[in-house]
Amino acid sequence: MKKSLRIDFVSDVSCPWCVIGLRGLETALADCAEELEAEIHFQPFELNPSMPPEGQDLDEHLLQKYGATPDQFAGTREALRTRGEALGFTFHMERRNRIWNTFDAHRLLHWAGLTGQQRALKHALFESYFTDGLSPADHTVLVAAASRVGLDPGEAARVLASGMYADEVRAQEARYTGAGIHAVPAVVVNGKYLIQGGQPPEVFAENLRQIVSQAD
């Protein structure tokens, strides 16, 4: 009999390693499909919660936050591009020149979770930012992403304009940071097992199989 798992995927839509982590996790789950099944819930995390609505130049941001220059990050960007390609995702790093506030994107994801389209919207938001270079703070971009995955664009616009689910998102952010999660992606399995970082599929698969065996 298959084992059932609950997976809480804590992440930000502006985090490239979260793209790698989600793609790797989904590949691992497909590889383990005969042994286990999982329900994925996306939990909010803001890498830059104080980022103003107009965002910030990406290179300026990286220099201020990490003390790194564009040349120093070139290797990392190439590694991301290569790993993304292997997992079926296209990074167009040259199109992503700003970092943005992502709070409204998380509110929209919360709403999508109530409709059963959360994972599809998560993928669409990753593609909007990392493939197309569009702002995840722009309500027009967010509504378009929602529409692409079959969500009602009018309702999506209403959610964004109203400030709905702000308290719920902040509560979930506080819950996970209070539990000690300060870097993403963080994959929490059955509420007690943590797999940290954008791991390769085989690492996720090994960890999931270990968790299932411990539950026997």
How would you characterize the overall build of this protein?
The structure is a single chain. The protein has nine helices and six strands; from the N terminus they run βαββααβαααααββα. Helix content is 54%, strand content 14%. With 216 residues, it is of the alpha+beta class. α4 (103-115) runs antiparallel to α5 (118-131) and α5 packs across α6 (139-148). The chain has one domain: Glutaredoxin, CATH 3.40.30.
- As a percent range, the share of helical residues equals 40-55%
For the largest sheet, list the strands in their spatial order: 2-1-5-6
Largest sheet: 4 strands, mixed
Question: In oligomeric terms, what are we looking at?
Answer: single chain
What's the level 1 CATH class?
Alpha Beta
Q: What proportion of the residues form beta strands (DSSP E)? A: 5-15%
- At CATH level 3, the topology is Glutaredoxin
Number of DSSP helical runs: 9
| Mean pLDDT level | 95
Order of helices and strands: EHEEHHEHHHHHEEH
Question: What low-confidence regions span 5 or more consecutive residues with pLDDT below 50?
Answer: none
The number of domains is: 1
Secondary-structure-based class equals alpha+beta
